[in-house]
Amino acid sequence: MCLLALGWMHHPRWRLVMTGNRDEFHARPTAALAPWQDETSVIGGRDLRSGGGWAGVGAGGRMAVVTNVRDPLAAQTGPSRGALVADFLRGREPAAVHIERLASVAGAYAPFNLLLADGDRLEYLGNHPAERQSLGPGVHGMSNGALDAPWPKTRRLMAALSAWLQEDGVRSPSQGERDLTPLWNALADEHRPADS
Fold first, then answer.
1. Residues 6+ apart with CB under 8 A from 106
2. Mean of pLDDT values over 36-49
3. DSSP states of the chain as a string?
4. 130-166, pLDDT tens digit by residue?
5. Calpha distance 55→84 (Å, rounded)
6. Could you give the CA distance from residue 66 to residue 103 in angstroms, rounded to a whole number?
7. pTM for this one?
8. How far apart are CA 132 and CA 39, in angstroms?
9. pLDDT at residue 109 above 90?
10. Average of pLDDT values for 7-31?
C-alpha cells in the first residue's frame, strides 16, 4: 500500500476510518480483502508469496497497515514487512507493547512505515529513519515517506477524507449509508505534481 489516509477518533460514530491504495508489482500474487483462511478473525488483503499482509483488521478493534519507504540507497532485504501486519493482527498484545517490542528489531527489515491500532491507541513505527510515536485524534496520512509528510498525493487524500468525515459528522445515523464516491475519486486521482 503506497497511499493511506485515516481518521482516528475524529468522527462521532467511527473510531477509525481508513482509505488507501496499495501499489505493488502486478506479477506479485495477492488475495483481495477477505477473511484469512488460517485466521478467520482477520480480514485483509494477503500476500500469497510471503503469507503476510499490507492492511487488515482483526478481533478487538485491531488494525494494521504497512507501507514501504522509498530510498534507492537503502537495503531492500530482510524479513517480509507483511509479517509485521500479520503478526499483530493474529496477536493479543496492545499496540503500544507490540510497537515497543518491534522497535528493537525494526532495523532488520527493509524500510517501512507501520501503523497499529488496538481500539484504544494508534501507534506508529518507522525504521527509515527510526521513529516511534503515539498518534492523537485527527486525520493522518502515510505514503512512501515520513508519516504525515506534505507530499501532494498525501495532502489531497487527507483533504478528501477530512471533507468526507466532516460532512458525515453532521448527518444522523438514520440517514443511511454514506456515498463513498468522493473517497474512490480521491484514490483514483492520477494528478502528477511538478517535480518542484
1. 112, 125, 127, 130
2. 91
3. --EEEEEES-SSS-SEEEEEE----TTS-EEEEEEETTEEEEEEEEETTTS--SEEEEGGGEEEEEEE---TTS---SS-THHHHHHHHH--S-HHHHHHHHHTTGGGSSSEEEEEE-SS-EEEEEETTEEEEEE-SEEEEESSSSTT---HHHHHHHHHHHHHHHHHHTS-GGG-PPP-HHHHHHHT--------
4. 899 999 999 999 988 889 889 899 999 999 999 999 9
5. 10
6. 14
7. 0.89
8. 28
9. yes
10. 86
**What is the predicted pLDDT for the residue at 168?**
64
- What pLDDT is stored for residue 56 in this prediction? 94
* Nearest Cα to Cα of residue 47 among 23, 25, 31, 26: 31
* Chain centre distance of CA 89: 13
pLDDT at 125 over 70: yes
- Maximum CA extent, the chain: 53
Q: What amino acid is encoded at 42 in this protein?
A: V
Residue 134 CB coordination number (10 Å): 11
- Nine-digit cell at 132? 516511534
Number of CB atoms found within 10 A of residue 57's CB: 19
